[in-house]
Amino acid sequence: MKISLLVIGKTDAGYFSQGIQEYENRLKHYLPFEMQVIPDIKNVKNLSEEQQKEKEGEFILKNLLAGDYLVLLDERGKDFSSLQFASYIEKKTHTISKRLIFVIGGPYGFSKAVYDKAAEKISLSKMTFSHQMIRLVFVEQLYRAMTILNNEPYHHE
Question: Which domain of life is it from (predicted)?
């Protein structure tokens, strides 16, 4: 199984990029992982929030392959502790044969078409984070999950 994080727009802040790269490199030790970047939508000032979500949704859906398992990172999703997330990832590695795709949407969330295609929604926090920051939070939590599953000392209770 391969895990992908699908995001809208590149990571502009160097300090986030460095952190993301650090955890991407660490994750390679455990499983195939990639972050796929969908280019920012052009002329967003001329689009309503709904139109922007629709355009982003089209690009998200175009990046999916048959057999992908789509999980949205969404504030209304299921909450996990780090240990519960590790257990979730372990279960998915045994039940998903192709790609496990996590998606961070644009600033207004997801289109109805993307919600309809998703198998699940997960919340990383009840707090709101920038779309740049949540990328780093996600890859760190995925790395943490892998160290938990491998009984390594990174995570402390």
Answer: Bacteria
Which structure tokens are listed for 20?
């993301």
What residues does each domain of the chain span? 2-150
CB 98 within 8 A of CB 69: yes
89-116: average pLDDT: 94
Is 48 annotated to bind a ligand? Reply is: no
- The reply, when asked if residue 146 is annotated as ligand binding, is no
| pLDDT tens profile 72-93 | 999 999 999 999 999 999 999 9
125 is in an annotated binding site: yes
128 labelled ligand-binding: yes
The answer to whether 105 is a known ligand-binding residue is yes
Burial classification of residue 18, based on how many CB atoms lie within 10 Å of its CB (0-12 exposed, 13-18 middle, 19 or more buried): exposed
Q: How confident is the model at residue 138 (pLDDT cuts 50, 70, 90)?
A: very high
pTM, to two decimals: 0.94
Is 127 marked as a binding-site residue? yes
CATH architecture of 2-150: 3-Layer(aba) Sandwich (3.40)
